[in-house]
Structures are given as structure tokens and as C-alpha cells.
Design a protein that fits this description.
It is a single chain. The chain is an alpha+beta fold and 88 residues long. It folds into 2 domains: 39 residues; 48 residues, IHF-like DNA-binding proteins (HU Protein, Chain A, Irregular). It is built from 2 helices and 5 strands; from the N terminus they run H-H-E-E-E-E-E.
Length: 88
């Protein structure tokens, strides 16, 4: 599903315009992104949890040349599905 379809479906379910639905969807994802950037965890009961995952530094290989490279440690967003989404 692409964002346009999500916006249309939300607008139909809520009985609002597509612009209003898109603004609401954008606000929700913006807030989730901002919270993750500062290290917070967002839990939506019945859906899942958005959090930050730490990736350790490691060695990697360039697949074309075989040269070993250092991959630095990093932080990334992580989603853990709730009970209702597990096993789908």
C-alpha cells in the first residue's frame, strides 16, 4: 500500500477530506520520528512498539573487490509488532 491509498482509506473511514487525513497521518509519523530521534519508545497497544536499536561497529567486505572495510556503530529505528500482528 502506498501513502495515497492509506490517505484515501483513512479519509473514507473518518468521513473527512483527503487533505485532513493526510495532515493527520503526517502528524502521527512526524511525532513518531521525533520521539525516536531523541531515544524515546512509542508503544501503541494492539499494534506494536517503535524504538531505537543500536548497531555495533563491525567489519564488512566490498562484494566487488573483496576488500575488508570498517562499518561504524549506528542507531536506527526499529518496529516490534504487537500480539495482533504477530504470525500474519
Amino acid at each position: 500500500m502506498v501513502k495515497a491509498v492509506l490517505v484515501r482509506n483513512v479519509a473514507e473511514k473518518l468521513g473527512v477530506t483527503q487533505k485532513q487525513a493526510e495532515a493527520a497521518i503526517d502528524a502521527v509519523f512526524s511525532e513518531i520520528g521525533e520521539a525516536i530521534k531523541v531515544g524515546d519508545k512509542i508503544t501503541i497497544p494492539g499494534f506494536g512498539t517503535f524504538s531505537v536499536a543500536e548497531r555495533a561497529a563491525r567489519k564488512g567486505r566490498n562484494p566487488q573487490t573483496g576488500v575488508e572495510i570498517d562499518i561504524p556503530a549506528s542507531r536506527t529505528g526499529k518496529f516490534t509488532p504487537g500480539k495482533s500482528l504477530k504470525g500474519l
